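Intended use. Records like the one below are meant for learning the mapping from a protein sequence to its folded structure. Do not use them to infer anything beyond what is encoded.
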Amino acid sequence: MEQTYFRKGFGLKKELKPLIDAEYHSAIVERIRSRGYADTFGDVTVRLAQEFGFCYGVDRAVDYAYETVHKFPGRKIWLVGEIIHNPHVNQRMTDMGISFVYPDGDGVFDFGAVSPEDVVIMPAFGVTLHDFEKLRKIGCILVDTTCGSVLHVWKRVESYARDGFTALIHGKYTHEESRATASQVNKHEGGKYLIVRDMDEAMLVCDYIARRPGALSRDAFLDHFRAKASRGFDPEVDLGRIGVANQTTMLAKESMAIGIKVHEAIRERHGEEYAKENYRSFGTICSATQERQDAVADMMKEPPTIMVVIGGYNSSNTNHLAHLCRQHTRTFHIQDAACIDIETGSIRHKPQLDPQAAEVEETEWLPEGSFDLGITAGASTPNNKIGEALMRILAIRGVEVDPGATAVG
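Structure written out for the chain above:
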């Protein structure tokens, strides 16, 4: 019988490495890294965060997509949603002949065009249990690139449901990863989940648990969380035992703080002994997300004059890196080099954490005279896109850089 599920690749990584490296490599980024993550070009001192760009999970997902194309040259290949949240990487998937299955406005995927002879790639974020079962029933070949850090969270959430705890997930309820994570409670009958976006939303839950003055009524609570809770959720029953988890790309400090507040609310309502038995929390921020946030925090001990954060506007981890930087220095979150106009010297950037926030354009954004330029990038941003953005900034300053990344002007 033909094998139809693959999670460990096809043994083609070494063969395809030169191709992938050539497409995503940047000489100028490697030069700065090799010089201790800092280098000077004309009157601009560039400082690179010591952890940035592609993480292991993204590397793995991209590798598997390339391997899949080479492994099944005669088959129709589909991708569920986006492989990662980077428009250039997803465009490269299209260029290689991969077709995308996008969700509708409610996050529902229609696999009606997928046949048993096709190949379907599941993204680094994973897919919901429901979608996985639908694909299984079709009988197509499945290539699973779900990140190991995401799988770690899934196991925690499943264990909560198994033991009768509601999974309270810090994340964006519309994000593919949070939807997939929440679906893990369905492995156990009666499993429940609730998704909170931030501390403000978590406090609505805490106030309800602790019966504090001004807390939402049951009906108001259900109305607010209707799209963010499991079917049949009853706050009177389902907030009695809680296990906290998170979307792996959220701000680590906020996830920890939310967990503390939930624990305090349970203790306030039911007492210390009850809280010990009926509250659980495990650190489920992925190591790569944590390392990139820590690297930015370290850089902000001596903040650069300006900070440029590069990555997709719908990339959660990139948005949070930009948010961290804004607390210390003037920060520009750009999607890619196209946001920087060499002719006018202007920059288009997203000034807020909200992924739906509109771009703004600024012209006189670079300081006069010598200055420090800090750069980091989200885990979905390849090095070549970081290098392209830096080259444009240097070009505005009249600094020419040769193809080998040696400054000549």
